[in-house]
Structure formats: structure tokens, C-alpha cells
Amino acid sequence: MKRTLLTAFVPAALLLGACSDPPPETIDAAKAPAASTAPIMPIPDSEPTVRVRLERHTSSGSARDVGAAGQPLRVTAAGTTSQWDGPIQVSRSGAGWSVSGRGGPLPQAAIAAEAIEINPEPGVACALPGPNGQDLYPGRMRCVIDPDGGWLLLNVLPMEQYIPGVLQAELYAHWPQSTYEAQAIAARSYALMQVIQRKRHLWDVTDSASTQAYMGDASDQTAINAAGATRGQVLSFNGGLVPGYFCSCCGGFPATGTEAVGPNPLNAQAPLSGHAQPFKCKDAPVYAWTRTVNAAAVESALRDWGRSNKNEALAKIGEVVSITSAQTNDHGRATQLQVVDRSGGRATIDPVAMSSALFDLKDGPPMSGWFTAERDGDSLNLSGRGFGHGAGLCQYGAAAMGEASAEGPQIIRFYYPGASITTAW
User: Are residue 204 and residue 322 in the same domain, yes or no?
Assistant: First the structure.
């Protein structure tokens, strides 16, 4: 049965993170006051499985070694099972799946299957050999045909085995336990949204910042403890799930869920409306930043983005002389940027789109799409704030709150105002 930590009733003054307030009362969801509206995304009451896309193999015959030396592995597909000793080599061609190594053989039904699964012994992580040793992953490996060509390698595992590997990948080892606990709740909520929304897809999340980082089998005890201490806990509002969006650093002024992610009712929920002041991340190394980039590369990237996204003014932009804030949200964060060229041409683009447009710059994308720029010869001097989209939990701010003795629920209250913490399983 779901249990809910009620945070919506906390007075506004306490949303600023007073460290002495008592933890919220734990109650049964069945005894909670009735929600005024139906939940946008109901919360399941059993632990889900998460499918993490680790690799995409695009070329025919591309092979991948799986398993440590001598590691017992079971390959299952289409109702068949074959026994192997690692490492095995998996590949796929027009003839179907191929597995080579000690053991087998792979049955014909498995060769022709849509997917094969590689199972280590229960409780043992599966090794993926690489150039710098081997990475370990709990759960099992799934190799599945990619409709766009080639095949995908997925790590398939229960949610609670997945979360420690997210925490260790996302946070610095010296950050406080309470920061890890708040991040665990946010990461679990985000992953749960992905699992629910992507049921008809082949995978739920990647192992990179395109969704949230994941490094496999966690060894950091703080990450392991924080995942255990918050087991099954997710963000909720009106009885429904709140996706736990987060960023590295909000730069002091948050984005809303709609601004950062898109105009979906799920993103328009009150807990994603942005945190209060004072901001907590002012001492972060990425709170404010400057960078010099090649102007021609930026201009070309903006024109390409404009053509691809039917922004005619941006598609025609010439020699850029400035980029300024054209509109801000209620928190003071830019929501529209104005690009001006030497001939007086003007175009607008939002910061999230700006990040996307400049993602493939030779020297790497800017830390966030929230910046201004001035022309200096063949260069543009960028002055920006924060790292990431700015919505939800700010990791550097959460670390500062933890170092000031705030507990995990206090951090959650600050960054997701009005949210409750529900124990779903």
C-alpha cells in the first residue's frame, strides 16, 4: 500500500529550508484527504522493471563481448535456453543473432528471435569488458533489434537496483547523505515516469545525461544507503506522479517544468512551478560562467536549427552581433532569447532550443541555453548562468542545503513546492 509524506501543508516560510522543522507525518494514502482532481499519472503500487539503453550497434555484424572470464551465463530467447561461460561475443547480421564462446550452441529459434537475454547467476552482476577493464551491471542484458537499423544493448533490472547506479553517476562522493536521498526520490520519480510513458518502446532511459546518468553496479556506500533509505519513495501531487526533473545548477533562477521540458499537463503541475528564493547554489562553480566560441560555428548551427524547426527568422540570421534576454519568467529566468545580426535581422529562440541548436558545436555545447553574447571579431563572448535546463531539483543547491543540515524531505519541499513523498512499493 502506498504511504504518503504530506508536504503540501508546510507553511511558505518553511519552504526556505528551516533545518529544525520535524519530518512530515507518514500516513496511509487511503486516509489522506481526497484529491480535488484526478491524478494526471497514477502511481503503480509494485516495483517496476527499468530498461536502460547502454549501447547502440549500428553496423551489420557489430559485435559485443559480454561476461567476465569464466562467468556462467544463460542465454534465453523464444522459449529456449543455452548455457555459456563468459566472455561470450554477441553480434547480429541478416542471418540473425550470433553468440560465440564456450558453451551453446544457440538454438535456431533464438537466432531468429527479435531479442535475446543474457542472464548471470542470481545476485551476480554481469560484466561488460571494455578498454579500461570491465563495468559491472546488476540485472540482465537484453540484445534487441533496433527498428532504425542494427541492434541495441539494454540493461534490464528492478528499479531499486537501478537507483544506486544513478546516484553514484549523478552526484559527487563528498556530498551529504540527505542530498543523495533527495536525488534518489527525484531520480526514481523521473525513471518511473519514463517507464510508464514508454511501455510501447524498446527502452525507458539511457545511461547518459540525455535522460539521467547511470554507471551500473554502485560501490559508493552513500549511494547504496540513500537508495535503501528512500526505497519506493516518489514525488506525488493530487495522488499522481510528479516527474522528478533535476539539473546540475539552476543558476539561482529556476525554470518551470513546462519551460524546460514541454507543454504537457504533467509538466504544468504546481510542484514544477519553480522553487522560492533565496537560491542555494550561489557558490557552485557553474552558477555563472563565461565562454568564447567561434561566431561562424554558432551562426551556422542556428541557421540549421531554424531551417529544421521552421523558424524562418533564425534560418535567415546573418553575422550575429548580440544575443540578449527577450523575456523572463516570474522567477527572473530567461524564457526567450533575441538574436540580432549585423544587418539588423532579429530572431527569437527559447533557451532549451538554444541548447539543442548548439549541442554539436566543435568545442562542445554551452553549459545551459540561458546566456547572453556579444561579438568580438570572429568570436562571440558568452555569459551564462547555471548548468542544465533549470527545472526541479538543483543538485548544487541540494548539496548546499545538505551541508547546512537540511534533511532529504526538506530539500524536496524546497525544490518541489507542494509535492508529497509517496511510498509506492
Answer: no
